[in-house]
Design a protein that fits this description.
Helix content is about 40%, strand content about 15%. The chain has about 350 residues and is α/β, with parallel strands linked by helices. The protein has a domain at about 170-360: 3-Layer(aba) Sandwich (Rossmann fold), CATH 3.40.50.150. Helix 7 packs across helix 8 (about 200-205). The chain is globular and about 70 Å long. The chain starts with 17 loop residues before the first helix and ends with a strand.
Length: about 350
Amino acid sequence: MSNQIGNNEKILKISNNHRNLKYMLNDYSKASKLFRPADHWIKKSKRSSREIKKYGLSDFRSWSTLIGDSFADNSYVDITNMFRSSGLKGKLAMACINIPLIKRIFQLQVNLTKGYAKNLLKARRKYTEQNIRAIELINKYSIPNNTVNCGCQQYAIFNNKKISLLYLEALNTIDYIKESSNLNDSYSYLEIGGGFGVNIHLIQNIFPNIRKFIFIEIPPTLYVANQYLKSIFGDSVVDYEKNRTNKNIKFKNNSDLEILCIAPWQIDNLNVSNINHIHNANSFVEVPEEQLKFYSESIRKFLSKQNGSISLVSFEDVNSKLFHNSTILTKYFGDYNFDYSVKSKLIFEDNKYYYYFFNR
């Protein structure tokens, strides 16, 4: 594989729509407690919202911002990024760090850390470019040219094209799901907890037969995904604000590409009952059980009775109060019989993902 960078990366311009963000956050504050995130997400969500308002989305995947902390592919090297948007405590911390002598010493440490981070990214890049599984995926699928926008620093280079490592990891998951689902014959797709939209981007590119998407996330991640997907798919993305008061959310009766971006409290307003594939990765394992029950019951209601399939993915079981054991994912699906398998991650093969599949 060549390590020279070609000119085939399409540069996307991501726009800011603060009115859309304002609607999301205002509606979120009034929504049922059922839709509140897990406790460890609350601080991150507030900090992310402040960063979005202050800095916009143009570099949300770079190490200059914490907008995408925990759902994007940022390299986290400067702790002052966390303090600058953390209210009074953050201001006090920054006042201490900005004392001239401390500031000079701290900046030396940041520069040293960035050096280590660059070396780590370089090593990860070289490893991925020689990874047999990565090469197999690159040769098997057509990958979009625009996977490294918005400041992405974690990528590998294949055939003169930069490809985001996060996209490659998502592609690895999609390939496993494809073996146990009906994606090739699907027309509609619903994703709960999709981060900033990587999976939807890949799915639509690989399976052009899928024309109707529903993307469900909590703010401010929903806002980032809404704007990111809009920079790729344009008016095919239906903004949150367009359906925020709609009590009958449904697809248009045509074959045009549609991506509906909605929040969890709008799920009961969805008028769909024949979704071909429904997917969740790595978020059901950390939501309160009450939420998991709600989402499971909603999935049962929306899934096509003729040819519906479900894929649930969880990261490796951890001994933590923050996360459930992955076996809980299927607890509230009643008589649905899920197949189960364990697969290696792409970049770190020792780490596993747990897959649960259901097909009609």
